[in-house]
Specification:
It is a single chain. This protein has 283 residues and is of the alpha/beta class. 49% of the residues lie in helices and 14% in strands. The protein is built from eleven helices and eight strands. The protein has an eight-stranded parallel beta barrel, surrounded by nine helices. The mean pLDDT is 93.
């Protein structure tokens, strides 16, 4: 069943677990993630970046996810990840997406407030939750801007003002994580996260989680995180399964066969994360 992220995240906040948000690239990713969620009896968020939307189309992704959601009894949400402007967020809502993110984190504080407020007002009127971002998640998300050497941490005082002025329903925070593949050992600044959670009452979101040790993620959940994003790990898992099959079977030309191996790898990754997030059995 296709639902919004509102009740998912509020339940996670009340009961101290997190819902996994998994980036999808094509049909195989959709099937694999939903299959794992169904097996784990876990609510799940499937999300697409602007780059994935350019590769396919909002309507294609909605069609695939809505079809998958009808075949399972677990709550499934379709979320626009890192929406890069008002226009794309509106297009996603009209296409049937049940949650959107507007990412103004690369803009000055007041500009971020303005663009987030414009999306949040429409979201509130249409019953669609709106995630925003304050602070910087390191690395480079999709084909967007690199965070560079900017201060990566969200200021707790700014977070209070930002949430009050924008009306966003969840907030992605900068606490030391980064998009893409980590070059060193990931480290979440738990004290920064606790300070934000103490001041802000909406669900917090952790981006750039692929490669972050499970224990750090568990601690972050206890410190206020309710939604955890995974993208790079799923891409790596799929390609690992796909390429491994092709290396052993170079003459195979039916793409479904190596794809099935890639999907199995995704399922394993998703199941493992759902257990660590504590969302298994919560559907």
């Amino acid at each position: 069943m296709l639902v919004t992220t509102k009740d998912m995240l509020l339940d996670a906040q009340r009961n101290h677990y997190a819902v996994g948000a998994f980036n999808i690239e094509d049909l195989e990713f959709v099937i694999a993630v939903v299959r794992a969620a169904d097996e784990m009896r876990s609510p799940v968020i499937l999300q697409t970046t602007p780059g994935s939307v350019k590769y396919a189309d909002l309507d294609y992704f909605y069609g695939m996810v809505s079809a998958a959601a009808k075949k399972t009894h677990v709550p499934v949400a379709l979320h626009l990840d890192h929406g890069d402007g008002f226009k794309l967020c509106m297009e996603a809502i009209h296409a049937g997406y049940t949650s959107v993110m507007i990412d103004g984190s690369h803009d000055p504080f007041e500009t971020n407030i303005a663009i987030t407020s414009s999306v949040a007002r429409v979201g509130a009127a249409m019953g669609i939750p709106v995630e925003a971002e304050l602070g910087k998640v390191g690395g480079k998300e999709d084909d967007g801007k690199d965070a560079g050497d900017d201060n990566p941490f969200t200021d707790p005082d700014e977070a209070v003002e930002f949430v009050q002025k924008t009306g966003c329903t969840s907030l992605a925070v900068g606490v030391g994580t980064a998009h893409g593949v980590y070059k060193g050992t990931p480290h979440i600044e738990q004290d920064v996260l606790k300070a934000i959670a103490a001041r802000v009452d909406i669900p917090l979101v952790l981006h750039g989680t692929s490669g972050v040790p499970d224990e750090q993620v568990k601690e972050a959940i206890q410190n206020g995180v309710c939604k955890v994003n995974y993208a790079t790990e799923l891409r790596q898992a799929y390609m690992r399964g796909f390429m491994s099959f092709m290396a052993e079977n170079p003459d195979v030309f039916d793409p479904k066969k190596p794809a099935a191996c890639g999907m199995k790898e995704i399922e394993n990754v998703v199941r493992s994360h759902m257990q660590n997030l504590g969302s298994d059995g919560k559907a």
